[in-house]
Specification:
The chain has about 375 residues and is α/β, with parallel strands linked by helices. The chain contains twelve helices and 18 strands. The chain is globular, with a radius of gyration of 22 Å. About 5% of the residues have low confidence.
Length: about 375
């Protein structure tokens, strides 16, 4: 193995896994729970009556109902609590008390702030304002919609807090990423799917086998819902069964693809997961591996600046600012393709596409015609 070739790494897991007859139980993101707490608090503020249940919309449009664990009025402030249920995912925020405190404000719109236990962003590269609360764009939109359903055009100030959130954050990578003082309010779909469990790995393996059983010779591995949406737009000629939300279990999916006679893999992902794959990490859950941004310094941009970046997203932003996103991204995709082919000992052809953070736009790829 040459110095430039990464060592391929995957945890010691069984080569085969039995799929449990009972489906894994999904849960709710911190963003969904925060939106439910914010709506419940606004209902109390508007009516003076403490709600027992509250219904909110997920980004998909589906509506879900939550029990309100606590609520109360204190002068011009209303407060409500929703307890997070992470389902069968081993999430450090399972059981967290997502708390929203609201008050009317004279201006228009809904203002969202972070309170106790919600981290503060101190470094670039997260797609959030430095100095602001670690509340991601999708949860912000969910909170805004939920509160507006009650408040209408009235202005509302919402403060999201998580008691003991700072303690929970010590079990995450937040501090290394520059998020200090608490957890992040996360979520892109509103739903927690148990990516990190052995059973999810088994479901990925099963999905590849199902595609092969339908005589499909290409499968498209996607890291999540946003990348899957981008992949289906990129390859509309492929049937739905070919698209597999692989989560962190790329290595398991590749092994089954070889065993089942699949001839070609297309991997569609964002820069973070692609960087881990480029380093030879085939099981990419954040608790088992970290992004090596120094690797990205080989592909483009100012090598010193890129190597010192806070996150892979920060590198993306640096590449974009320097006008080298396409060229550097193409090199990253080519490196990932080489890793995938080498992992399967040449049994599979592979192509790779990197999408932006919406998941909709291909910004680099091993095939030039794929790039927007």
């Amino acid at each position: 193995m040459s110095q430039d070739e990464p060592e391929l790494r995957e945890p010691d897991l069984p080569r085969t896994a039995k799929v449990r007859p009972k489906a894994l139980r999904t849960g709710w993101t911190t963003g969904t729970c925060a939106s439910a707490a914010a709506k419940a608090a606004t209902m109390l503020l508007a009516s003076g009556e403490p709600p027992r249940w509250v219904e909110v919309a997920l980004p998909s449009g589906r509506r879900v109902t939550f029990a309100v664990a606590e609520s109360g009025l204190d002068g011009d402030l209303a407060r409500a609590v929703v307890v997070k249920d992470a389902g069968d995912d081993p999430d450090v925020t399972h059981g967290a008390h997502l708390t929203a405190t609201v008050r009317w404000h004279p201006g228009p719109g809904i203002r969202i702030e972070g309170g106790e236990g919600v981290g503060v962003v101190t470094k670039p590269g997260l797609g959030l304002k430095v100095g602001g609360p670690a509340i991601n764009p999708v949860p912000r939109a969910m909170i805004t919609q939920a509160v507006a359903e009650v408040a209408g055009a009235r202005g509302v100030e919402v403060t999201v807090s998580v008691p003991e959130g700072e303690l929970m954050a010590r079990k995450t990578t937040n501090r290394r990423l520059g998020i200090l003082g608490g957890i992040s309010i996360l979520g892109t779909t509103g739903i927690v799917r148990p990516f990190s469990t052995a059973s999810w790995r088994a479901s990925v393996m099963q999905a590849v086998a199902v595609a092969a059983a339908q005589a499909e010779t290409t499968v498209v591995l996607c890291t999540g819902g946003r990348t899957e949406a981008g992949a289906t737009a990129l390859l509309p000629e492929l049937p739905e069964v070919c698209f597999i939300e692989v989560g962190d279990f790329t290595g398991a999916a590749l092994r089954v693809a070889v065993e089942q006679g699949i001839g070609r893999i297309v991997f569609v992902g964002m820069i973070g997961k692609l960087t881990k794959l480029a380093a030879g990490v085939l099981m990419t859950h954040y608790t088992r591996s970290k992004v090596d941004v120094s690797l990205l310094a080989r592909f483009g941009g100012d090598p010193v600046e890129v190597a010192a970046a806070n996150t892979a997203r920060h590198v993306y932003e640096l590449w974009e600012s320097a006008g080298v996103l396409r060229s550097a991204g193409d090199r990253l995709c080519a490196r990932v393709r080489d890793v995938l082919v080498r992992f399967t000992k040449g049994a599979l052809d592979a192509d790779v596409a990197m999408v932006d953070f919406t998941g909709r736009v291909v910004v680099a790829a091993t095939r030039a015609e794929w790039v927007a």
